[in-house]
Amino acid sequence: MDRKYKRKIRKRKRILKFVRFILLTVLSLLTIVFLALSPLFNISAIYVSGNSNYNNNEIIDVTNLIIGNNWFRTNGLDLKSILLFRSIQAEKSIEEKCHYVKKATVRLNIPDGVNITVTERQPYVISPYSGANLLIDVEGYILDSKQEVSDYNLPVIHGLSFDNSRLGQALNAEDKKKFDMYKMVVEEINALDNDKVYDSDKAIYNVVDYIDVTDWDNIQIMLDGRVRVNLGNYKKIGNYRLSFLREIFFNKLDETDKGYLDFTTGDAPSFIPDK
Predict the structure, then answer these.
(1) E-strand spans in 121-214?
(2) Please, which residues have CB within 8 angstroms of residue 68's CB and are 6 or more apart in sequence?
(3) 156: β partners
(4) What end-to-end distance do the CA atoms of the chain give, in Å?
(5) How far apart are CA 83 and CA 63, in angstroms?
(6) DSSP class of residue 191?
(7) What is the torsion angle, in degrees rounded to the nearest 10, for the CA atoms of residue 181, residue 187, residue 193 and residue 195?
(8) What CA–CA distance (Å, rounded) separates 181 from 234?
(9) Exposed/middle/buried for 157, CB within 10 Å: 0-12, 13-18, 19+?
């Protein structure tokens, strides 16, 4: 009889202990929720850093964060945002609507401040398209469309189609291949220009107006607005061919000469003057 009674007592104690645990857990959660939704976490200030292409208000306006609103109410029931004290929704909104932004972090600075940190893409090259000029970053993302681009002092790429491409997105697969070829040509030119054997005043890159990658077998560049060069297949563009081009352009031609050089006929082409 005593054993049965004792077992009942122990069982009752375990049940009571479990109930107390549940009640304390629920009470703690309710307290946390009450505090989270209280004015203690009402946003009092929003700080933005890392932005150069947008002012602070332009970044803040796309986040749905408003001074005076509660941080947790704004984020809703996004568990990841709650646990990390971040606003994943605001981060995605910045990255989608602000095309220069590569990555955004929106974090609560407990209890009532918000820090927005952005990493921006920078224009790398310009491509004429449909009466305007598209700014593209080094990874092939289309950042912006401008009518006037003289202040950017950037090289120009020709030959991209931009089929099914939009601002803020990466180039389509075919254009990306051509874009990578453009970068390869630029790297080869820069490698030659940076060689200390050569006079830095005779850098090819400084006189490049555009590089045309329309045809992989006929990569063309315009130098100083007067000499058009067909460098041939992109795989054959290297130090030897570019060194020969440098020698002709800077040492053999006059500053007023206009014409055409075709490396598809061999590594030592003749200069064909314009008529």
Answers:
(1) 123-129, 132-137, 142-146, 156-158, 208-212
(2) 42, 43, 44
(3) 126, 210
(4) 121
(5) 19
(6) H
(7) -130
(8) 7
(9) buried
CA distance 85 to 81: 6
Asked if residue 219 lies in contact with residue 213, where contact means CB atoms within 8 angstroms, the answer is yes
Among all chains, which residue has been given the structure tokens 């314009």?
274
Rounded to whole angstroms, the Cα distance separating 158 from 107 reads: 41
Q: Is 171 helix (H, G, I), strand (E, B) or coil?
A: coil
Query: Distance (Å, rounded) from C-alpha 116 to C-alpha 49?
Result: 6
The confidence score (pLDDT) of residue 34 equals 62
What DSSP line would sit under 200-232, residue for residue? GGG-SGGGEEEEE-SSTT--EEEETTTEEEE--
Residues with Cβ within 8 Å of residue 101, at least 6 apart in sequence:
54, 94, 95, 118, 119, 120, 121
Q: If we measure between CA atoms, which residue out of 43, 52, 46, 50 comes closest to residue 115?
A: 46
Helices 239-246 + 173-193 axis angle, to 10: 60
Question: For residue 164, which phi and psi values (nearest 5 degrees)?
Answer: 55, 30
Tens digit of pLDDT at every position of the chain (275 positions): 566 666 777 777 777 787 787 877 777 666 656 656 778 889 999 999 999 999 999 999 999 899 999 998 888 878 888 888 999 999 999 999 999 999 999 999 988 899 999 999 999 999 999 999 999 999 999 999 999 998 998 999 999 999 999 999 999 999 999 999 999 999 999 999 998 766 778 899 999 999 999 999 999 999 999 999 999 999 999 999 999 999 999 999 999 999 999 998 876 787 899 87
Beta-carbon contacts of residue 229 (< 8 Å; ≥ 6 apart): 220, 221, 222, 223, 245, 260, 261, 262, 263
3-state SS assignment for residue 146: strand
